[in-house]
Amino acid sequence: MSKIPFGPTYDEMLNPNHQDPEVRKAALKAKSENELDPINLFNITWKNENNEVNKIVLPKELTGVEANIVVLLGKYFPSGSHKVGPAYSTLIEGCVDKEIIPGKHTILGPSTGNFGIGVSYITNLMKYDAIVIMPDNMSKERYERIAKYGAKLDLTPGSESDVILTLERTYELKKDPKNRTLAQFELLPNYRFHRHVTGYSCVEAVKGIGNERVACFCSAPGSAGTLAAGDQIKAVFPECKIVALEPHECSTLTNGGRGQHRIEGIGDKMCTLIHNVLTTDFITQIVDDDCVRGLEVIHEGTDILVEHGIDRKLAESLTNLFGVSGICNILGAIKMAKYLKLGPQDNVVTIATDSFDRYDSVIQNLKERELEVSHNVLERWFEDVFMGADTSRVLDTRGDEAKEKLFAQKERDWLPFGYSKEYLDSMKVMSFWDNEYNKIHEYDEKIKAMRGKEI
User: Fold this and answer.
1) What is the C-alpha to C-alpha distance for residues 338 and 360, in angstroms, rounded to an integer?
2) Which of helix, strand or coil describes residue 82?
3) Res. 33: pLDDT tops 60
């Protein structure tokens, strides 16, 4: 017999002030002193010690638009990425449903990086063995972080755009009855976490900014979990436009296109099972190297930002806040602010999944490819990437024909993995998603009831 690990409910992740005060105090202490203390499970939240959302409103000298672009910051989560939230949610639901047993089951985590890091971190805290299955051509910092937290790596050929091979390998490994999969692309705890915890955090993030409403929410789908936040934002602000971003080089959602790209964490050549395409209003393509160049401008181009009117202290504070996918989301937000003709009272919300700490090798690769990254080059990239962001490659997906194309893509992607057409068809009505979301109340009660009990 083993004890269920002690961890937060969905409500406690959204509202850490609802945690037991002594638990909250201990968690905040461990966050700065010992990241491998299991009490850090209670730091899985977008909120800081003052119960405020970790965010930044980007200076308009950087975005070039009148609208306010608000970025939630994933770097403050345990393990350095918000992907730890879906990893925990998927594992704890399996625990309280008695489908995942401590000491008996090994956890599989299919990923291209951040979810794998989250799985490795969570299984370390919750005392499970874990195997992270991911492509063999991702940034070395991701492999190092996974190994640091103790999971084994099982690498498949290719890069970000070859995640189907990772899924096939995962399905092979899960034939072993001792293995249980935290399948981020398929399992609804990912959707529940982001719809509830991220969605309401986005709503809170615009308090005191502009008209205090969300006009647009942008996110580039890897698993498409983060896009679920848009469902809750749209429930509060029905006028909000939900935008899925994808690499121009791998335009699967736009037109079924396939190809390699450099935006780690997104664009996985599929419409994921948990992507609620009913609420996706637009699909916008982003050029991959714009994201890498934009990251270099912010990371090493502080003087460039100051020359363009940004306060030096603010410019310096931006240096390590974002990763490549975060820049992708920011560029998507800029494009959509222009496309939707948003003004100074309007708010566009997006997410920085992680931060610079896992992209040094990506920047080194950029410098090797470019041969020279001088002040003049950074100035040109600032103008081209940020000021030059335009409204091209924006696809309106609000019509029935566009939705049917996305549903057809989902069928092509998931029928081969054993899902029935009847199940996929059930996702074509909003009640499916609302019913799945409402299970958070059931799981919150289960988590509280099962804390410390043996299974």
Assistant:
1) 31
2) coil
3) yes
| Full domain range(s) for residue 112 | 84-183
User: Which helix (H) or strand (E) element contains residue 371?
Assistant: none
What single-letter amino acid sits at 451? R
Q: Is the pTM of this model over 0.85?
A: yes
For 200-227, what is each residue's pLDDT tens digit?
A: 999 999 999 999 999 999 999 988 999 9
Please, are residues 45 and 53 in contact by the beta-carbon 8 Å criterion?
no
Burial of 442 per CB tally in 10 Å (0-12, 13-18, 19+)? exposed
CB-CB contact of 8 with 450 (8 Å): no
CATH number at residue 146: 3.40.50.1100
Assign 2 a pLDDT band (cuts: 50, 70, 90): very low
The pLDDT tens digits for 376-431 are 999 999 999 999 999 999 999 999 999 999 999 999 999 999 999 999 999 999 99
Contacts of 3 (CB under 8 A, 6+ apart): 102, 452, 453, 454, 455
Indicate whether 331 belongs to any domain. Answer: yes
The pLDDT tens digits for 278-310 are 999 999 999 999 999 999 999 999 999 999 999
Query: Which residues share a beta bridge with 129?
Result: 106
Give SS3 for 50.
coil
Residues 365, 230 share a domain: yes
Long-range CB pairs of 195-198, under 8 A, 24+ apart, other chains included: 195/228, 195/229, 195/231, 195/232, 195/437, 196/10, 196/14, 196/232, 196/437, 196/440, 197/10, 197/13, 197/14, 197/45, 197/46, 197/85, 198/46, 198/72, 198/82, 198/85, 198/226, 198/228, 198/229, 198/351
**Tokens describing residue 386:** 């940020």
> 257 and 227 share a domain?
yes
Count of structural domains within the chain: 3
